[in-house]
Amino acid sequence: MDANVRFPYRFFIITFVFAWVLWTPLVLGSLKIIFISDKLLSFLTMPMIMLGAFGPLAGALFALNKDRVDKTSTVKYLRSFLDLHLGWKGYIMPVVILGSSTFIAWFLPELFGEKRLPMLLPSVWVFVPYVLIMMFLGGGQEEFGWRGYALPLLEKQFGIWYANILLGVIWACWHLPLWFITGSNQIYMNFGGFILLLVGYSFIFSWIRKISGNRPFSGLYTHGLANAFIPLMPILILQNNIPQPRFWLWVSLTLIIGITITIFRKENTLPKAIKTNNSATL
User: Fold this and answer.
1) How many domains does the chain have?
2) 133-162 pLDDT, tens per residue?
3) How far is Cα 183 from Cα 179, in angstroms, rounded to an integer?
4) Dihedral, CA of residue 160, residue 168, residue 251 and residue 27, to nearest 10
5) Taking burial as the number of CB atoms within 10 A of a residue's CB, which of 75, 163, 197, 272 is the most buried?
6) Domain residues for 239?
């Protein structure tokens, strides 16, 4: 563990508080603990979920304000997201990896008798603008905090493996209220499987950031692309209490790909303290 790097607890506290304050009324309304008409609840659900997804940005800005070394640290942080020079690998590899894993999970079950799940987008031609929406409003905005702020600190403190496992688990737990909100996609997912998915995503997103020259915009792009592939090649049957073979195949592929990529990363390291302790026992 790098003693010179502080655990970003302020970031995580504000990230959770910001989102959960916004999502709690939806939870209480969905569970009929407070009265919200079904029409109003349906109207509020998506805007409130999208607004809550800015929690990691709020957490990052708060932490930067508290820990800033100079007055320009917040400006530098925000400006770093304007650097779009990810290189061809930074733009193409997320398409190849996430597109392939989603396609396999969507298509392969058909060979074993599952019915095809039709595309949820109105047309394949809206995919590109849909990616842009997902980048800035449909989940990608989370990356202002997860990969834009927290990941570099965690990887420096804990190493690639532990940092991404930790971030993946925290990232999944942050979504927990969505399992109790009527109209969210999470109600059709197994939460344990979702944790495995986000750990796999954490490994993949970390590597994409690395090959993109550690440019934070890579997180927004990769996360937005990952979410945009889901309605293009659906992996969820939108019904409760039925098997979800595509979901489990998708989760498994994502985790395996993430672990494999991390094994072969050139800078595959453990935290300094752990390496020192291991060396002492040899």
Assistant:
1) 1
2) 999 999 999 999 999 999 999 999 999 999
3) 10
4) -170
5) 197
6) 9-272
